[in-house]
Design goal:
369 residues; alpha/beta; seven-stranded parallel beta sheet; 9 helices; 9 strands; globular; disordered C terminus
């Protein structure tokens, strides 16, 4: 990703990113000074102050976004950004959620703590993040405050590929995973994907003891974290832009191979693979009109001319009707199931190298043991 050149212009400074996950350990060498006070959304009526990580997942997510790489830790993509940890109970994709909607409260907490970007590391085939009323009011509030919300499309393509909340909601940017070989990962769920990012073979904290990294990390929640870090870099460089403009530039400058048909949106990779350097280093991507409050599912690159007629989007029962203009074009059958192009290959491989940084030392030590 040519991050050395990116970081000469921006490191994501001034951007607060809420990590809705298993919690965050602010004491790892890579995260010291990077984590702001957060909340525990598992406690009803305002939550609690304890955001300690009991699995290691949330800390990995935070390091991939804003880790400094110190002490052999992971080097994040936007080390100038700050993390707001919001802890929620982790759910399996097919696990019935509690009647109390932890994600709905988590989103509200993130907004109250002035997050500019939210990345969500859980998903369910049931409605979550919709509140007890069944309406996405918290996400509507995020739109009103011009906050970008990212979530992984899901890791269960082989187990039925049922659309997951919150990624399936119109208010959320759905992110798929790619491999270092430039293919969409076989576990990455497809159907309503907006963009994609590296999500395999990335080191992770093995557990809550925080003694070592394991080399088998990844998943679409990881991809969503890297997409949110990309947004932070762009937004930090252009603080006067709206969420729609940041997202439009991400779509417009995404990596797409030579065999990608103009005007199509892949059901597997969305508009392509994140390339923050394409805009920051080379100026690619047109931000277009401010379009404040427009739902991410309706954002299109300025010069995007669909080759297929736009379809009426499927709106989940939890979503409020939108007055937004025409939706993005329907996914096309021409989009390959597992794109394999030179552009995706270069982006995926470069990202895997850039993001691990000093953390590669820890992985090598594990492999030798």
């Amino acid at each position: 990703m040519d991050v050395d050149r990116i970081w000469k212009k921006t490191t994501g400074e001034g951007i607060k990113i809420a990590v809705i996950d298993s919690g965050v350990n602010p004491s790892t060498p890579s995260l010291r000074g990077q984590v702001l006070p957060g909340r525990d959304a598992s406690i009803p009526e305002g939550g609690g102050p304890d955001t300690s990580d009991r699995t290691g997942q949330g800390t990995t997510t935070a390091e991939l976004i804003a880790g400094t790489g110190k002490g052999g830790g992971l080097q994040g993509l936007a080390p100038g950004a700050k993390i707001i940890p919001i802890r929620v109970p982790m759910l399996k994709h097919d696990e019935l959620p509690n009647i109390y909607d932890h994600l709905d409260q988590a989103i509200r907490m993130a907004l109250k703590l002035d997050a500019k970007i939210i990345t969500i590391s859980l998903g369910s085939q049931y409605a979550i993040g919709a509140g007890l009323t069944g309406q996405n009011y918290a996400l509507q509030d995020a739109l009103a405050k011009d906050v970008l919300v990212f979530a992984g499309s899901g890791d269960n393509a082989k187990e039925g590929n049922k659309p997951l909340a919150p990624a399936r909601y119109l208010e959320v940017v759905s992110v798929a995973s790619t491999t270092p070989e430039g293919k969409v990962a076989d576990f990455s769920q497809h159907g309503d994907v907006n963009i994609s990012a590296p999500g395999t073979g990335i080191p992770r904290w093995c557990d809550a003891s925080f003694q070592r990294y394991c080399p088998d990390g990844g998943g679409t929640h990881t991809s969503a974290a890297l997409a949110s870090a990309t947004a932070a870099l762009i937004w930090s460089l252009h603080p006067d832009w709206t969420a729609s403009q940041v997202l439009r530039v991400m779509y417009d400058s995404a990596g797409r191979g030579d065999d990608w048909k103009p005007g199509t949106v892949s059901t597997y990779a969305g508009y392509g693979v994140i390339r923050p350097g394409a805009h920051i280093n080379r100026g690619l991507g047109n931000p277009g009109a401010p379009d404040r409050g427009r739902m991410p599912k309706f954002i299109q690159p300025v010069n995007h001319v669909p080759t297929t007629p736009p379809a009426t989007p499927t709106r989940t029962p939890e979503s409020k009707p939108s007055s937004a203009p025409a939706p993005k074009p329907a996914p096309t059958a021409a989009s390959p199931a597992r794109p394999n192009t030179s552009v995706l290959l270069a982006v995926g491989a470069a990202a895997a190298l850039a993001l691990t940084g000093a953390g590669v030392w820890g992985v090598r030590r594990i492999r030798r043991s």
